[in-house]
Amino acid sequence: MDLLSRKATCNSHGQDSSYFLGWEEYEKNPYDVVRNRHGIIQMGLAENQLCFDILESWLIQNPDAASFKRDGQSIFRELALFQDYHGLSSFKNALADFMSENRQNRVSFDSNNLVLTAGATSANETLMFCLANPGDAFLLPTPYYPGFDRDLKWRTGVEIVPIHCSSSNGFRITKLALEEAYEQAKKLNLDVKGILITNPSNPLGTTTTQTELNILFEFISKNKNIHLVSDEIYSGTAFSSSEFISVMEILKNNNLQNTDVFNRVHIVYSLSKDLGLPGFRVGAIYSNDKDVISAATKMSSFGLVSSQTQYLLSSLLSDRKFTKNYLKENQSRLKKRQRMLVTGLEAIGIGCLKSNAGLFCWVDMRHLLSSKTFEAEMDLWKKIVYQVKLNISPGSSCHCEEPGWFRVCFANMSEETLKLALKRLKKFVDNGILPRSCQVGESQSLKSSSKKTTMTTVSNWVFRLSFHYRDAEER
Fold first, then answer.
1. Fewer CB within a 10 Å sphere, N or C end of the chain?
2. 419 given a catalytic annotation
3. Are strands 227-231 and 265-270 parallel, antiparallel or unpaired?
4. pLDDT at residue 28 is higher than 60
5. Closest Cα to residue 269, out of 282, 281, 283, 279?
6. Of 231, 274, 289, 364, which residue is the catalytic one?
7. Which residues are 195's β-sheet partners?
8. How far is CA 89 from CA 243, 311, 314, 388, 394, in A?
9. Does pLDDT of 442 surpass 60?
10. Residues 359 and 44 sit within 8 Å (Cβ to Cβ)
């Protein structure tokens, strides 16, 4: 008899992806401007640290919110007691209003259609539990966020079938690619229950176009049993709000409110990227389907947002003067930082996909590969991690079909650190290899990491459908 369950011992979590392995190497040797100047600079983490000063200023000016007071009186005991899993109405109302403001109030959100979750990870998984059964499939355009292999599949048993997108058109979704993915799922005897997109895209840093959204809505209108999930956690990072189009706007502008499509479109949102608060673990599902809301609300009891967090953020998001200023300044700072990375890379001879949102750039290093293979991509990635001392995410970890693309984050560090990262990369490109003084510890790191079969076979892992590798009992 096995001591642990099949779920506990299966290898479908995705932790062996180079996306997570890069984090592990960073944590062994993190860069610090004072304590470890030759450490690895973390450019594989999509955090928004550019507006902490604005948030901290608000907290100083509003001490009651942070100290759990209302009108000067402590409400600590009220917040410390058991909370209903529906969440605080004051926070849900404030969050719904913030989501509308984030979209320039072109659409409105009903707080009754919101389900609070412990971050977007929980929101996405909960939606999978609500919309699909184990062995059913969701279609995802590539490249996509590596964590989806964990978030959408690991515990739910849902399969991911890629919609293969190409650099030839800027990795845009096409009708042909969508139809081919659907047909591929049918060949694998998978029942397609939905499509999931990130808008703006992680890792591309681009907003989904009107044309792409029209293709998606046309597809789900034709296929009556298919849902569309739009992960819009980066909506507030679009450099210009007018360039971001929410699926809610398509529903409104195409007068789909009273059609069957209306209940099959769902949104995932969180405050991790727009407000830079991933540690607060605040996510949400928005759906017009009352049955989805009811089921998701019950499931949310496994990952609630604390009452203290809800109270603090309800006060912050209800301050319209603050939110208006924050959204504007956040967009401005992100755009400036993105230009700093793009121009710095251009000076080195490295290009990027043209982007207009997000906390990262999709960087084209195909010309630096020794061959047009994923093995060559992994070789280059190892050199960048261990020699250049930068943790970036290889395209293969994002299921990109073309070797040589990398996701590089820019909003989780100071300008000085970004300049240092560019300086290191320039030296590597100019010389082909860094001076030995900058390679301290590389041999030890390579020795311990390359012995792991995951380091050498990761390019195979990222392209497999877990359906073919799962034990029969796990399907």
1. N
2. no
3. parallel
4. yes
5. 283
6. 231
7. 139, 228
8. 31, 10, 9, 49, 42
9. no
10. no
Cβ 232 vs Cβ 348: under 8 Å: no
Q: Quick one: average pLDDT of 218-231? A: 94
* Inter-residue contact 142 to 165 (CB < 8 Å): yes
Residue-wise pLDDT for 52-95, tens only, equals 999 999 999 998 888 887 877 887 777 777 677 788 888 999 99
Q: State how beta strands 137-141 and 192-198 pair.
A: parallel
Taking the C-alpha atoms of residue 140 and residue 100, their distance in angstroms, rounded to an integer, is 26
Mean pLDDT of the residues in the chain: 87
**Residue 157, Ramachandran bin (φ over 0: left; ψ between -120 and 50: alpha; else beta):** left
Cα(422)–Cα(411) distance, rounded to whole angstroms? Answer: 14
Q: pLDDT tens across 241-286, in order?
A: 788 999 999 999 999 988 999 999 999 999 999 988 888 898 999 9
Q: What span, in angstroms and rounded, lies between the C-alpha atoms of 315 and 241?
A: 24
Q: Active-site residue 273, yes or no?
A: yes
Catalytic residue, from 233, 250, 285, 392: name it: 233
Asked if 369 and 376 count as a contact pair (C-beta separation under 8 A), the reply is yes
233 is catalytic: yes
Residue tagged 């990870």 (tokens): 121
Q: Which two tokens stand for residue 308?
A: 């203290």
Give 121's Cβ-side CA count (13 Å radius).
17
Whether residue 352 contacts residue 363, with contact meaning beta carbons closer than 8 Å, is answered with yes
Radius of gyration over every alpha carbon of the chain, rounded to an integer in angstroms:
22
Catalytic residue among 145, 269, 286, 326: 145
**What residue type is 302 in one-letter code?**
F
- Which among 153, 273, 382, 389 is annotated as catalytic? 273
Mark whether 231 is an active-site residue.
Answer: yes
- pLDDT at position 75 is 76
Closest residue by Cα to residue 86 from 116, 111, 110, 122: 116
Contact (Cβ atoms closer than 8 angstroms) between residue 428 and residue 388? yes
Give the length of the chain: 475
Query: Which residues on neighbouring strands pair with residue 351, listed in sequence order?
Result: 364
